[in-house]
Design brief:
heterodimer, A: 250 residues, alpha/beta, Rossmann fold, 6-stranded mixed beta sheet, 28% strand, globular, B: 427 residues, 2 domains, 10-stranded mixed beta sheet, 9 helices, Fe-S cluster assembly ATPase SufC (chain A), FeS-cluster_ATPase_SufC (chain A), ABC_transporter-like_ATP-bd (chain A), P-loop_NTPase (chain A)
Chain lengths: 250, 427
Amino acid sequence: MLKIENLHASVEDKEILRGINLEVKPGEVHAIMGPNGSGKSTLSSVIAGNEDFEITKGSIKFLGEDIDALAPEERAHKGIFLSFQYPVEIPGVSVTNFMKTAINESRRAQGLEDMPANEMLRKIREKSELLEIDRKFLSRSLNQGFSGGEKKRNEIFQMAMLEPKLAILDETDSGLDIDALRIVSNGVNRLKSKDNAVVVITHYQRLLEYIVPDFVHVLLNGRIVKSGGKELALELEEKGYDWIKQEVAV
Amino acid sequence: MAFENRVDIDHSVHDIRMEAIKIFEEKGFPTKKDEAWKYTSLNALLKNDYSVFPKEESALEFKDIKKYFVHDIDSYRIVFIDGVYSSHLSQTSHEGLDVCIMSSALTKPKYQLVIENYFNKIAKKDDSLTSLNTAFSREGAFINIPKGKVVDKPIQILHFATGKESSLMLQPRNLVVVGENAHVQIIERHQSLTDNPVLTNAVTEIYTHKRGIVDYYKIQNDNQDASLIDNTYISQQQSSHASVHTFSFGGKLTRNNLQFFHKGEYINSTLKGITITEDKQHVDHSTLVHHATPNCESHQDYKGIYADRSTGVFNGRIIVEKEAQKTNGFQQNNNILIDDKATVNAKPQLEIFADDVKCSHGCTIGQLDDEALFYLQTRGIPKKEARALLMYAFANNVLESVKIPEVKIRINKLIAMKLGVNIGFDL
């Protein structure tokens, strides 16, 4: 589904990604872990098409197609979703209306009619129940005055509404208390299928107790230096990143 | 322009008009040398040879101009075509209130007292453009709401220019008197239906008595050949509330002189605006809130979005006199420049002579947030629509205080149109 080969990316001439190789197949859950500044968030931004970063070498293929030149919204229309670490506040635009806009813009891009209102409402109800979101919440301005947990839950609600093929969750666990973590993870797990894939980017192992990865990759200085199964996450939790740094240095 | 022989000498306001002519002749049109006009030049506009009094009357059919009204609400209407009152497009009233026209108010004896008490009393007498209007205005809205009357529906004042004249100057004059405990909502719009240049020099005087409430909405979405100089003066008595929302989307040059004067305690004044410009449009908001009495509040919030080579001015003045203790005066002006060539000149002026006051002002000039744009794009919203959503969000809190839902919907639509997107910003 997603195939990244020798990806190098820079921001303002500073190279952050230095040769990433990653393949994600349908039905898989990948976790990307690494210390601060290793390039985790850059990788997710580059996959989603953030124009602040320049791809200097390598390629990103999604469903067999080179997507380097596509705008973020075009990638979204193809089925890539990025859950933000710091979702942006949009005053005056309610969660419901924002979702309507997002869904209908995607449908228009695919030459489809706008989603009928009753269908939209049914879908909103169904997905908000999944994320245990209160109705009143849906009429509030997007992310404005939301707590950290509400913002993250709302991100996963948007993911549920947009039904992406590939969801990248960037530090979704940060700022979540244990209940919110359970709700969010439960939502992600319920949305999982053999046809879609999830890439979880996280600093800590905690989230991976709830969203169990098939593969764990360690990102260090812009490269994936080690990959393994879910037990690798536990090892990292226990021993920190230093032993990997030493291993890489050797 | 030889105006003198066109003054109606029979009016009770004859002396006032003669005085105004003198002042205008002395001062002439303002130039960039005047501090208050430093960033707004009328030179290009004054090159046109304007007709001041149209020779022939024009008629318009309601169906052709319906879209310029907030037509989905029941309302009183006062409509002018090329400066002349159109009775067949209007819906006035004398039942329990007066919603009618200045020409009749100035001539009918029953209004003489109101005219004597209020005409040209709060309008700035040494202002040359106001004087020009005082001297030559023939028509406008006359709204007199008696004590205790809560007007059941909004009043719409519309001015159309048809282009019968190759270039036209209009001088509408409105007088609004809101009695004790009375409440009125007014929507005003100037609309040119032609490519011929139109310059409107409007003066509106508003008086609110004790506990009176007036909400005034100015929808400025005229075409690119029309310019507007709006002079609005508001005098407030004790515990009255007055709000003016100005939505400046269209027009070649727009200057809004908006001045509030406090004449009692516990007054609340609200001045809000959204400006969205493109091409070479110019919009200038010059506001004044004169706090002369204790325990009053004023709230100013102006948002501006400037694209292309368009230019904006925000000149916000708050004066707090020594007597005006416990004043709360807030002023906020935020601007986004979409293009490198767009400019805005923002100048907050706070002149505070009292010591126990709360006054604050904030002024920002910036660009759209790239991170926010990226966020919206990752949700499948194309860049253009995403930018529009962010601009809408930026301006949104100005709309929160709009009390007529249909006006809010209309403004939302105009914003979407102005930003060239097909997204409903319904709330």
